[in-house]
Amino acid sequence: MDNERIRDFCLTLPHVAETLNWGHHLVYWVGDREIGGKMFAMTDLDGSGIGVLWFHCGAERFHELLEDEGISPAPHLARAFWVAVERWDALRPREIEEELHRAHALIYEKLPKRTKAVLALPEKDRAKLIRERKKLLAERAAEACRAGNRSKQVFVPVSRDETARRPARAR
What is the pairing mode between strands 53-56 and 16-21? Predict the structure, then answer.
């Protein structure tokens, strides 16, 4: 198993989108993230991170998978029941495909109703909606940059004592 086979398999699942995030992670989403999609798996393209494949496995399966050698809790995502496969031979290829299929199904069930409604649209209408949403988000980002709008930034506390001074989010 390798990144290309994972990519080929994930893209055969329904409503899957992919993005390159954090410089070297290929992230697979159930639904496009611009319409409220959620990620269900990711691969490390350059091998510089912890593990070669990360995926959501659910609360029940999480502890079972951690008993296997070569599988560990995924950093930053373990509390959401994600695991990291440290090397490609930690699971057989068929097992990896089953786990990715299960991850996709678990995340799909957690999607908001409005996102599921968009995914239920015919492909042409869904693609048009996603294009419009991306365009709107790009326009908003460009407008914020032009305006130098720093008033919408939120103060992030360094310690718990500073939490009380956090301003409300601008909407």
Answer: unpaired
